[in-house]
Design goal:
heterodimer; A: mainly alpha; 2 domains; B: alpha+beta; Beta Polymerase, domain 2; three-stranded antiparallel β-sheet; 14 strands; 40% helix; globular
């Protein structure tokens, strides 16, 4: 094995090398596998935490440019080139700040909530496949299910934080978080069933392997539904409700200070990033890209680039979208996303079966027919929305007052 | 009282035919020499106001305030409560009521049943003068807290660090030359006066809010609601990102739904009016900058309009042009900021407000070149303005008004008004019907968004506005969306006005008389008002012919525009509170004074 071969599948080879080394020391296979997994897990967990340092800088820069200003700069400060170290400075500031606790908090729950929030956000990374084989911490055969379950747990952290803070704003935020999850898990799950059905697998690796044509081309409408539900789930504008700063100040973490607050901030960014990765796996073909078969380590590059694009889109939303109201958001889920997702599930299932029965087995042929079906549904939906909009406008015009002079 | 033509000509503060009709119906209404308008007995005031409203068309109670007459030569000590009523066109009818000034005896019937706009103003008079209004549904203190000892605007109330009745204080110049400030001389303990038997340690803070919470719990209860859910009271503010300063709204919520909202004022109260009475007439000009600190120029202007009415001075034409230019630029600044900060309240993470602030900076550059300051301008003077336009100023103003601002306003209007999320959040939210708006004393863009084409620049033209060509912007839905959209409509009209005045500005003097620091104003009283960006900004001034005003009252736009806030938000969601509040566009500096 030369250097290039070693580098081509770097992570797997390092794991194998470590396993051999530990075996060489005479450890039993159980201990060898345990130690390798723990080291791998720590390395994986550091990934999002360091990525966030960069992403905070990136998001601030992007939003700065959206708002016609510079964002962080290093003008005369030690923030490094392009103020890249700004996030480090932020982190140091956060770590050195005092904790201020509300007097009547629920002591244990109050402290567990931020830890849980970060833990849940990081835990998603266990099932994300960063490369063809081996470059995944664990390939659960119900990986998709695991991701959704963790997302619910993240809301549990919000509820804990809100309830234990003994603050009405925090309570309102927590209640909003709960009603959001109840509403948005359903379209999210339904939209998620579509790629699962097409791939015939709930494992993340299986999903990527099935995407010779990325699912976003095959089934754009479920991809859009999933993307919107995901935006709601990570609490990004326009669906940000649990912390709506203009209304309920900071929602569920209004009473947190110092690094406890920092933990929520961190969890929010990691959640955004993890959601971007999951979306990439589900719809954008995951680690697929040129030369991955030759050099599996490139899978990490491709999936990161795709996830980065999704993250950028979420950041654009952050800078450019006003916030919807809670009843609009819930209505949007129950009256629009959920029915549409149900329709899509049925349509995709029928069309896919029909295509297979017709014997069109080439991936692009199947994708074409599915795309056409999606486009048809999308057109009908847009027409219905247009009519509803016209009706609303007419109703509003009927409510106008006469001009008083 | 027999009317002769000579007397009729000298009528002040009330139109001739109104006064005649009033006297026919109420023979006891008279016009005494020291007041403008008509003096009516206290027990008749509700009937008189109803008569004026229903039969003479005075549908707008703009201003209600009081003056404490104590130690005035030739005048019995009394409190004079004054009402300024307006028709849709033309000037005002002032009504005066004299009541005894002893606490307990000072009371008169409330006109809130006729005009909800008296709600907050009567509370303010009660708060500041101790005058009780019989029949007021919610007579609590407005700006001071419950339990405050004394009524600050009474002439016998002396504040902490009291030095003297009027400025300049002699105590500061014992030997002439450099002033000595009272704060340096007097230690705190000698100056603070507590009520009998009161100690700050034993003070129960909850007691101060007892009246508020009693009202919060009782108002608009629905005993028959289907689900017996618990309701909770939550305080928005005084420290809240969306209250534009230190404004507090106590809200009773049923889940996310607002059942009752009670605004609580006074966190920025600095007794502006009392300080204004101590200042000399000229010293009050920079002091008005601090009211609505976004629009220092129009604050100056409103005060100067009232002052010039008292002085009877003519203003040179060039000065009027300059005033219109800065006034309209100020309106653009205000409306851009209002729209920008409104988008903040919709959750747009500062993007809208930062674009608005950028335009504001450019206009402030102009103002700075003109007055030397970016916020506290101190620019207008009785009879003119302080400085002439500097070299090249007009070119810069033209470049801004003809090219940059139209471009930016168009962009911003497109981004905000055509945004589906903004539409979803604002359309049909916080609807204000026109009749409620008029009765509640609401003015400015908020009123015009409800379909009332009422603009003081047209209804009672001041300065050059009767010669200028512009339209009164009107929108007809009365919801938050229209209140946002009308601000852009008004910016277009302001730009139209700027085109006319920037092109036609004449040469000439900028001030009628040499400005004097010791300006003596003839005895009398007046109410002057302009169409400030936020609405009607009025100044009620009483002069006894001295160097200082005897009474200096501000008819605050932002305060009066909040009269209907409680009704506008009832039944809406939590998020809509800030939508409605943002669409009203208030500045706390003006609300609390």
């Amino acid at each position: 094995m030369n250097v290039w071969q070693f580098l081509a599948d770097f992570f797997v080879n390092v794991g194998a090398w470590m396993g051999e080394l530990l075996s060489g020391w005479g450890l039993s296979p159980f201990w060898v596998s345990l130690i390798v997994k723990v080291v791998g897990g720590l390395a994986l967990a550091i990934g999002p935490l360091t990525a966030v340092l960069f992403l905070i800088w990136y998001a601030r820069k992007v939003i700065g440019r959206i708002q016609d200003r510079m964002g962080p700069t290093n003008d005369g400060t030690a923030a490094g080139p392009f103020a890249l170290l700004q996030a480090v400075a932020d982190a140091i500031k956060m770590l050195t700040k005092e904790f201020v606790f509300p007097k009547e908090r629920d002591r244990v729950v109050f402290l567990i909530a931020p830890v849980l929030a970060v833990a849940v956000a990081v835990a998603v990374w266990a099932v994300i496949p960063f490369g063809p084989q081996g470059m995944q911490f664990v390939d659960l055969n119900i990986g998709v299910f695991y991701v959704v379950a963790l997302a619910s747990l993240a809301f549990f952290a919000m509820l804990m934080a809100g309830w234990s803070s003994h603050n009405k704003y925090a309570n309102l935020g927590a209640f909003r978080a709960v009603s959001m999850i109840v509403s948005y898990e359903i379209p999210q799950m339904l939209a998620l069933l579509v790629p699962v059905m097409l791939a015939g697998s709930m494992g993340m690796q299986g999903l990527v392997r099935a995407q010779e044509v990325p699912f976003i081309v095959m089934v754009p409408v479920p991809a859009l539904i999933y993307f919107l539900a995901m935006t709601a789930e990570v609490g990004r504008l326009p669906f940000e409700q649990a912390e709506a700063d203009a209304e309920i100040v900071a929602g569920y973490f209004v009473e947190y200070s110092g690094m406890l607050f920092g933990a929520f901030y961190l969890a929010e960014f990691i959640n955004n990033l993890s959601a971007s990765f999951v979306f990439t796996v589900l719809f954008l073909g995951g680690w697929r890209g040129p030369w991955v078969e030759q050099a599996p380590v490139l899978g990490l590059v491709w999936i990161s680039l795709k996830a980065f694009l999704v993250f950028t889109l979420l950041t654009f939303f952050w800078g450019a979208m006003p916030r919807l109201r809670i009843d609009h958001i819930l209505g949007f889920s129950w009256k629009f996303l959920t029915p549409l997702a149900l329709v899509m599930l049925v349509v995709v299932a029928l069309v896919d079966k029909a295509v297979q029965a017709a014997g069109l087995t080439s991936p692009w042929g199947r994708a074409g027919w599915l795309f056409l079906a999606n486009a048809a549904v999308a057109l009908v939906t847009v027409a219905l929305l247009y009519r509803a909009e016209r009706r609303q406008q007419a109703a509003r015009e009927a409510r106008r007052f006469a001009i008083v002079r | 009282m027999a009317e002769t033509p000579q007397e009729a000509v000298q009528l002040k503060g009330i139109p001739q035919e109104t006064f005649q009709a009033l006297q026919e119906r109420f023979p006891e209404a008279v016009q005494p020499a020291r007041y403008e308008g008509a003096l009516v007995p206290a027990e008749k005031i509700v009937e008189v106001v109803r008569f004026l409203r229903d039969e003479l068309g005075y549908i707008f109670l703009s201003n209600l305030t009081a003056t404490d007459y104590l130690d005035v030569k030739g005048v019995e000590p009394h409190i004079d409560v004054v009402y300024h009523l307006f028709r849709m066109q033309g000037g005002y009818a002032a009504l005066h009521v004299e009541i005894p000034r002893e606490i307990g005896k000072a009371h008169l019937p409330s006109v809130t049943s006729l005009f909800p706009s008296a709600m907050l103003q009567e509370r303010e008079v009660y708060d500041m003068f101790g005058v009780k209004f019989d029949g007021h549904p919610d007579l609590r203190r407005l700006l001071m807290w419950e339990g405050f000892d004394g009524y600050p605007l009474r002439k016998d109330w002396k504040e902490v660090y009291y030095e003297g009745e009027t400025k300049p204080y002699r105590s500061r110049y014992p030997k002439g030359g450099h002033p000595i400030y009272a704060e340096e001389l007097s230690p705190l303990k000698d100056n603070i006066r507590y009520p009998e038997g009161w100690s700050p340690q034993a003070w129960d803070y909850d007691e101060a809010d007892r009246l508020l919470y009693e009202r919060m719990l009782s108002a608009h209860r629905d005993p028959d609601k289907p689900l017996k859910t618990d309701e909770m009271i939550i305080n928005f503010g005084p420290h809240h990102p969306s209250t534009h300063g230190v404004f507090r709204m106590a809200v009773r919520l049923d889940g996310e739904t607002v059942r009752h909202l009670e605004p609580v004022f006074g966190y920025l109260h600095r007794n502006h009016e009392k300080i204004g009475e101590r200042n000399t007439w000229i010293q009050n000009i920079p002091f008005t900058d601090r009211l609505d600190y976004i629009n220092g120029m129009t604050n100056n202007w409103a005060y100067i309009v009232a002052l010039e009415k008292l002085l009877g001075w003519e203003v040179p034409e060039r000065a009027e042009y300059i005033r219109v230019i800065v006034g309209e630029f100020s309106r653009i600044v205000n409306h851009m900021l209002a729209a920008g900060f409104f988008s903040n309240e919709l959750g747009l993470y500062f993007t809208g407000s930062l674009y608005a602030l950028e335009e504001r900076e450019h206009i402030l550059d102009l103002f700075e070149a003109l007055s030397g300051a970016r916020m506290m301008f101190n620019y207008m003077r009785p009879g003119g303005v302080r400085y002439d336009l500097p070299e090249g100023w007009l070119e810069k103003a033209k470049a801004l008004a003809y090219e940059r601002i139209p471009r930016k306003v168009e962009q911003m209007a497109h981004f905000l008004l055509d945004n589906d999320v903004v539409k979803a959040r604002t359309m049909g939210v916080g609807v204000l019907p026109p009749d409620v708006a008029i009765a509640s004393g609401i003015t400015g863009p908020v009123l015009r968004a409800s379909g009332v084409a009422y603009d003081i620049r047209r209804a009672e033209p001041y300065s050059l506005y009767d010669q200028l060509d512009f339209d009164v912007a009107v929108r007809t839905h009365g919801d938050a969306y229209d209140r946002l959209a009308i601000r852009f409509d008004e910016i277009w009209q302001s730009l139209r006005i700027l085109r006319q005045v920037l092109e036609n500005i004449p040469e000439g003097p900028i001030v009628a008389k040499k400005p004097s620091h010791r300006l003596k104003v003839p005895a009398g009283e007046t109410y002057g008002r302009i169409e400030a960006p936020k609405g009607e900004l009025g100044f009620y001034l009483v002069s006894l012919g001295k160097f200082n005003p005897y009474r200096y009252h501000i008819r605050s736009t932002s305060l009066l525009n909040l009269t209907a806030l409680s009704d506008m938000t009832r039944g809406l969601k939590v998020a809509d509170i800030v939508t409605v509040l943002g669409s009203i566009d208030l500045t706390m500096g003006e609300v609390d004074r």
